[in-house]
Design brief:
The complex is a heterodimer of chains A (503) and B (201). Chain A has helices at residues 42-49, 75-84, 116-132, 147-153, 185-194, 219-230, 245-248, 252-260, 276-282, 291-301, 352-364, 384-387, 390-400, 418-426, 429-436, 485-494, and strands spanning 14-15, 51-54, 60-63, 66-69, 94-96, 135-136, 162-165, 179-182, 196-199, 203-210, 238-243, 269-271, 311-312, 314-319, 326-328, 336-338, 379-382, 410-413, 439-440, 461-464, 479-482. Chain A is built from 16 helices and 21 strands. Chain A has 2 domains: 1-324, Aconitase, domain 3, CATH 3.30.499; 327-502, Aconitase, domain 3. Chain A has 503 residues and is α/β, with parallel strands linked by helices. In chain A, helix 2 (75-84) packs across helix 5 (185-194), helix 13 (390-400) packs across helix 15 and helix 13 (390-400) runs parallel beside helix 16 (485-494). A 5-stranded parallel β-sheet of chain A has the order 6-5-4-7-8, sandwiched between helices. In chain A, strands 19-18-17-20-21 form a 5-stranded parallel β-sheet. By secondary structure, chain B is of the alpha/beta class. Chain B has a single domain, classed as Aconitase, domain 4, CATH 3.20.19. Chain B is 33% helix and 16% strand. A 7-stranded mixed β-sheet of chain B has the order 4-3-2-1-5-6-7. In chain B, strand 3, helix 4 and strand 4 form a beta-alpha-beta unit. Classes of the chains: A alpha/beta (503), B alpha/beta (201). The interface between A and B is large, with 88 and 63 residues.
Chain lengths: 503, 201
């Protein structure tokens, strides 16, 4: 696939030295590791460990360890299985959870989902999950939530695995050093039927973030900043490995935020090598290995890093100190600026981006040259598979504790899972948010994509912790500014896009 | 899947870059449990106004392009979501070929599963075809997958690359799943080995 050399980012072929760590002692490594002969990237290693067969024409059959399923992209796949008289090949590796369509209001368990089409889709998932015998978390189960939050939370997602889902934000699971990516419905059917996927191998790209983040700068700002640098097609044809001091310093929640948006940069997947933080996060989760299997798994997981002399096809190095709290001004995730900036002019761009930028300015109702901090907002949405985890809500609570959100503003916090919600309530985080004036909702995708009742009205302007600012994404003619949770909290207090460092 | 071998058709020019899957088929149409019937909502928010009336300026609403079978698009067509509803909507409208300088990964793959041929060409070739497409219904473009060539209305020929396996499947309308199931022994062997070496998976 061609990669447009967009936005003048310097990218060079370079060795993978900085992504790599020293290999641990090989005394106790399982046999599978002894086959590692040449220097490999983390992606190469996971790929090789899942290769069922490889044809001369470059098409490979890759084994899939975990298949996550939600209600929107699976009904046609299950229908295909039924029509062909096929079964789910590995129901024990298939996990279904409703998330896109579910209402997030507190009364959702009273009576049926009002929207008929949503109800049909949700009912179809339940029927398919039960008929085919796959793991299923119904909407009234405390473990229900956004599929990309439930997977890691329940220990389904483990280092070194291949994880797929009919959803582009499957990239999230790459935070565990697993190869995770979105697939279409035909591929969902293929995985259901065979537990494999026909794939051609991507190229290797390294994104290294050196040094330490400045105060007020978060994982969300890292991932948005990277997309601002590469453009939304900069990662097309690649699997990105994120590395460097600033990435290593992130919590697992932060790493999930970074990998979640790898797809917005066009990459097939984002990866972060597992380390002690990863192992600590995984240990004890319901579907994580236990006892002797844990020890064996840990030994294997410690081999999951990019070898010292492995070569990346493309390298992007960013200094953490150069990243500011970021915000999008337009209708593409690449339309990223530091909050200290001003709305650009279409003429600031080149080529096809001039027309696209003008269209975005018109759609967003913005005047070029105005300060981003002068943009007034109507709504704040905090949640989604990008920023719907406990750490996100703790950070928001830290900012808004003892304060009130701007009068008249609509502000909602939507936990990524029932367990995140319960934990936030137990820690007192939820009460702080409620006291500040936020609506405290039930788990689901909510306003990230507005397939449920949570939507923007035309021209309603939202500071959102979600991942896409496409036209109509949060509701027809709705206007989305992507931000981090703390920036969303700041905007909720002032009623305009606000530099968190000024609070 | 319907086979794809050759096509002669009108091409609609859509030079906008980053045409995303939410533009191709907005989220409210993802609630279907079928693959068919999405053509009427293809590019819904660009194609219809708030009252549901056609926006005359939108390319596929113009008389010359109402039966277009080809789209010539700006960079990075199909970025965003994994929704296969995007190629389903294109196909249901009648689009069988999309030509651009680049496509988003998942969308590109989804096209081949549905009998749509996405063609990647250098900028200058896309520019030339965009010009051809601007000429409307009189400018028929011929696409031949077998010979991997596109012939413009003036006879100019451009060749394109395509993955051999994907081409084979498209030309023969093959069902991937059937092909993979022929390798069930290899899959079973892989699973047996993994059950020993990585029992936690």
């Amino acid at each position: 696939m061609t990669i447009p050399a967009s936005h003048g980012v310097f990218m060079a072929k370079a060795s993978g030295r900085n992504a790599a760590r020293k290999r641990p002692s090989t005394d106790s490594l399982p046999q599978i590791c002894e086959t590692i002969m040449t220097a490999k990237t983390l992606y190469d290693k996971i790929w090789d460990a899942h290769l069922v067969s490889s044809d001369e024409d470059g098409a490979s059959l890759l084994y899939i360890d975990r298949h996550l399923v939600h209600e929107v992209t699976s009904p046609q796949a299950f229908e295909g299985l039924r029509n062909a008289g096929r079964k789910v090949h590995a129901p024990d590796k298939t996990i279904a959870v409703p998330d896109h369509n579910v209402p997030t209001t507190l009364d959702r368990l009273e009576g049926e989902v009002k929207n008929e089409e949503s109800r049909i889709q949700l009912n179809a998932l339940e029927k398919n999950a039960l008929d085919f015998g796959v793991h299923y978390y119904p909407v009234d189960d405390i473990r229900q939530g956004i599929v990309h939050i439930v997977g890691p939370e329940q220990g389904w997602t483990l280092p070194g695995m291949t994880v797929v889902c009919g959803d582009s934000h499957t990239a999230t699971h790459g935070a565990f050093g697993s190869l995770a990516h979105g697939i279409g419905t035909s591929e969902v059917e293929h995985v259901l039927a065979t537990q494999t996927l026909i794939q051609s191998k991507s190229k290797n790209m390294k994104v290294e973030v050196t040094g330490k983040l400045q105060p007020g700068v978060t994982a969300k700002d890292i991932t948005m900043h990277v997309i601002g640098q590469t453009g939304t097609a900069g990662g097309t044809g690649y699997v990105i490995e994120y590395c460097g001091e600033a990435i290593e310093a992130l919590s697992m929640e932060g790493r999930m935020t970074v990998c979640n948006m790898a797809i917005e940069g066009g990459a097939r997947a984002g990866l972060i090598a597992p380390d002690q933080k990863t192992f600590d996060y995984v240990m004890g989760r319901p579907h994580a290995p236990k006892g002797a299997q844990w020890e064996a798994a840990l030994t294997y997981w410690k081999t999951l890093f990019t070898d010292a002399d492995a070569v990346f096809d493309k390298v992007l190095t960013i200094k953490a100190e150069d990243i500011e709290p970021s915000v999008t001004w337009g209708t593409s995730p690449e339309d990223v600026l530091p909050i200290s900036g001003t709305v650009p002019f279409a003429s600031d761009f080149k080529g096809g981006k001039v027309e696209a930028a003008q269209r975005a300015l018109d759609y967003m109702g913005l005047t070029p040259g105005m300060k981003l901090t002068d943009i007034e907002i109507d709504t704040v949405f905090i949640g989604s598979c990008t920023n719907g985890r406990i750490e996100d809500f703790r950070e928001v609570a830290r900012i808004v504790k003892g304060k009130k959100i701007k009068s008249g503003l609509r502000a909602m916090v939507v936990p990524g899972s029932g367990l995140v919600r319960a934990q936030a309530e137990e820690e007192g985080v939820a009460q702080i948010l409620i006291d500040a004036g936020f609506e405290w909702r039930l788990a689901g995708c909510s306003m990230c994509l507005a397939m449920n009742p949570d939507q923007l009205a035309p021209e309603e302007r939202c500071a959102s912790t979600s991942n896409r600012n496409f036209e109509g994404r949060q509701g027809r003619n709705g206007r989305t500014h992507l931000v981090s949770p703390v920036m969303a909290a700041a905007a909720a207090l002032t009623g305009r896009l606000t530099d968190i460092r000024d609070l | 899947m319907e086979k794809f071998t050759k096509l002669s058709g009108v091409a609609a020019p859509m030079p906008l870059i980053n045409i995303d899957t939410d533009m191709i088929i907005p989220k409210l149409f993802l609630k279907t449990i079928k693959r068919s019937g999405l053509g009427k909502n293809l590019f819904d928010e660009m194609r219809y106004d708030d009252d549901g009336a056609e926006i005359p300026d939108f390319i596929l609403n113009k008389p010359a392009y109402r039966n277009a079978q080809i789209i010539v698009a700006g960079d990075n067509f199909g970025c965003g979501s994994s929704r296969e509803h995007a190629p389903w909507a294109l196909l249901d409208f009648g689009i069988r070929v999309v030509i651009s300088t680049s496509f988003a990964d998942i969308f590109y793959s989804n096209c081949f599963k549905n009998g749509i041929l996405p063609i990647i060409l250098p900028q200058e070739d896309v520019d030339k075809l965009m010009d051809d497409a601007e000429r409307g219904a009189n400018a028929v473009i011929n696409v031949d997958l077998e010979s991997q060539t596109i012939t413009g209305p003036d006879g100019g020929e451009v060749s394109f690359e395509v993955d051999a396996f994907k081409k084979h499947c498209l030309i023969n309308g093959l069902d991937d799943i059937g092909l993979t199931m022929q390798k069930s022994d290899a899959i079973a062997a892989f699973e047996a080995q993994n059950a020993t070496s990585m029992p936690w998976v």
